[in-house]
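FORM 7B - TANDEM STRUCTURE REPORT

SECTION 1: FIRST PROTEIN
SEQUENCE AND TOKENS:
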Amino acid sequence: MTYPEVGATRDPSLPPGYHHVDRDEHLGTGAATFERAAAALSGWRMHEATGLTVVESGGSDVILRWRLLRLTIPCRVVYTVEEPGRRGFAYGTLPGHPERGEEAFVVTVTDAGEVRFRVRAFSRPASPLARAGGPVGRRVQRYMTDRYVTALRRLAQP
């Protein structure tokens, strides 16, 4: 791992010294919507729908490739969430990732049947290119978070 705070996206507060993302979005309603969203998330279909290629390299390691910027993005799944009404996972950065940090994706269904999708992340530049990009890197992260939400909302529908 390229950061010491492994698993910190579970904590109430994200670690200081990083850029933070905490986004909670409505996906729809009902158990079927929840199951479709959870399956799309755990099967990497959400990531693929955003334009990433997913190469599972065994165990908990995964390599994401983003054709748009010709990036190779090595990650490790650091925890999974498998609870009634709550599913997801978090991955953290490995050497070679342009950023340093962790991102969590969790789908929940409330007692009222509302299906929610939460993305929590903390990151800072790891490569010289990412550091040189400055605010552009934050815009790319917002862009990808928007794409995750849009993709999972679409994949959760019948």
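SECTION 2: SECOND PROTEIN
SEQUENCE AND TOKENS:
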Amino acid sequence: MIVLETPRLLLRHMVPDDLEALYALYRDPEIRRYFPDGTRTLAETRDELNWFLNGHPRHPELGLWATIEKCSGAFLGRCGLLPWDIDGRLEVELAFLIDKTRWREGFATEAAQAIVEHARTVLGLQRLICLITQGNAASVGVAEKIGMSFERQHEDEFGPCHIYALALVTPES
């Protein structure tokens, strides 16, 4: 099922046939460099893919979605929205991961911009965050291009990270 579309991308629910392409990304240490849990095994990748087949199990409107290049049909990565409990508050993270062979082509920014609009207009979310590991300048760049700004440092079971945030509604004056 297609979740959203951009000029160059389709974001759709993952399917079991995405496993090999997703695993190729998840086992690559360079792609997973800034992920606090590092690379993933095939079994771990399968578990995550199964978890997100129909959206997030507790929030089906959210999830990680296969990110497909329209013109080639290539599986470029996975992007989407993830719910987190941060300091007792439900937050929704905008997450993106693109194949390193396609870095610097603007796919992460294009997907992120579409996800922000989807979150605002379809889901009615009021705020999005990005959890970015220190030193990940590329992800900071994407977050800033879509209007996010540094909010604060955060630490959880995976270690320290920076929270970038974007209000999706303008408070009434």
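SECTION 3: OBSERVATIONS ON SECOND PROTEIN
The CA atoms of residues 67 and 100 lie 14 Å apart.
The first strand starts at residue 2 and ends at 5.

SECTION 4: SIGNATURE
Preparer initials: ____
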